[in-house]
Amino acid sequence: MTRKEFLKICGILGVGIPFNTSLSSCNDESVDPNTIGKVLIIGAGAGGLSSGHLLQQLGIDFEILEASSTYGGRMKRTLDFADFPIPLGAEWLHIERGIFEEAVNDTNVQVNVATTLYNPAIDTALWDGEQITIAEADFTEDQKFINSTWFDFYEEYIVPSVNDKITYNAIVESIDYTGEQITVNTQTEVYTADKVIFAAPVKMLQNGAITFTPALPADKQKAINEVRIWDGCKAFIEFSEKFYPAIVGFTITPETDGQKLYYDAAYGQNTNQNILGLFAVGTAAQTFNQADEEDRINRMLAELDEVFENQATPHYIKHTFQNWNAEPFINGAYVNDHEDWRKVRTLGASIDNKLFFAGTSYTEGDDWGSVHTAARSAKRAIDELIS
Predict the structure, then answer these.
(1) Mean pLDDT of 286-313
(2) Whether the Cβ atoms of residue 345 and residue 363 lie closer than 8 Å to each other
(3) What integer best gives the mean pLDDT of the chain?
(4) Residues 223, 244 share a domain
(5) Domain range for 311
(6) What is the CATH number of the domain that holds 50?
(7) What strand order describes the sheet that includes 182-186?
(8) Which run of H or of E encompasses 88?
(9) Is residue 157 located within the same domain as residue 268?
């Protein structure tokens, strides 16, 4: 059963999603910041930024250590390819729009983010060459951002509260939580803290890039070793003509091996450009990630030519490509949709009231792999940290 199917079944049966924690106000005056001490957050992706934002609201001292030179993690986007923002990472909104207010966690802030649902009366999809409805393609709940992205949302509403607390190019190598004070060693500096929120990708733990003293509990280490992180890539292709529907999907067999679809990336945008996106995870991403630049675009165009009777190559203008496996501090996409929820829950479990975990992979097993799950996992981590 996939993560998405699990959520749908809960809705059909009219039962609550187990272990789900939605955001509530963190402006709790009963919390004494002096009793918490200093918090170090490892990683400035959605989970780390959300964690810092909530700590800032509580008045708790914190610092974010980010290994790269910028914030955002897998919410990366570019403004150079089209006349609207192109999300090279996280793209769709997979949940109700109320998540924006939940993430901001401040009723005094008015959130202004435009999104749009697909129109089942107009929009169609091709799946394995067969025309189907948007509902059959399972895109009735997913929303596209209009003239913005998840990155833009965080940049406007979350980052301002934490920007001066981020230290960049801080590559963490080890975390020692033996004593009352936790020691975090980067390649160049030594930091101490009373609590640590780990918000870096699971792949960094699988690769052994960060060591822990004492070693992580056996069940957590087992979950780290066993969860499958899908490879990931995205591409965007500009064409002189629009010859494709909203969604073009392909069946990957077995389904646990990944997903692949092309989609109208300009959907809902105020633009005259024809931009087709490619989203691929798992074995489908490997095919493109392992190819050189020329072979990669030739494969895409050949695939589209076959589906659309040679309309792709004649109308090709340019493309851009994002290989998430090649990002040095990410190395992949996300925990696959078919993972055992119990392993995901173990990934998110805190340790000794010292180490806490936040991010798309560190949830309570109810949902994972999307930006909103990172925001909610941050709330759970902060709730545990201050309790």
Answers:
(1) 97
(2) yes
(3) 93
(4) no
(5) 115-145+230-326
(6) 3.50.50.60
(7) 190-193, 182-186, 172-176, 211-213
(8) none
(9) no
- Residue 379 CA, chain-centre distance (Å), reads 16
In a domain? residue 123: yes
The rounded distance, in Å, linking the Cα atoms of 95 and 9 is: 15
State the distance between the two ends of the chain, measured CA to CA, in whole angstroms.
34
Backbone φ and ψ for 277, nearest 5 degrees, come out as -95, 155
Instruction: Give helix 46-58 / helix 150-157 axis angle, nearest 10°.
Output: 20
274 and 377 both lie in a single domain: no
CATH number at residue 122: 3.90.660.10
Whether 8 maps to a domain, the answer reads: no
- pLDDT of amino acid 17: 41
Question: How far apart (Å, rounded) are the C-alpha atoms in residues 262 and 303?
Answer: 11
Angle (CA) 322-324-326 rounded to 5° is 100
CB atoms within 10 A of CB 7: 17
Nearest to residue 368, comparing CAs of 201, 154, 247, 233? 201
Instruction: Give yes or no: residues 63 and 168 share one domain.
Output: yes
Cβ contacts of residue 196 below 8 Å, gap of 6+?
A: 39, 40, 41, 42, 175, 177, 182, 184, 354, 355, 356
Q: Model-level pTM? A: 0.93
Pair (46, 87) in one structural domain: yes
Whether the CB-CB separation of 269 and 285 falls below 8 Å is answered with: no
Handedness of CA 210, 216, 220, 221 (dihedral sign): positive
Place of tokens 């996409």: 333
pLDDT of 22 > 80? The answer is no
Residue 11 lies in a domain: no
Please report the pLDDT score of residue 33 as a whole number: 86
318 and 251, same structural domain? yes
Q: Is residue 219 part of a domain?
A: yes
pLDDT digits (tens, 9 = 90+) for 85-94: 999 999 999 9
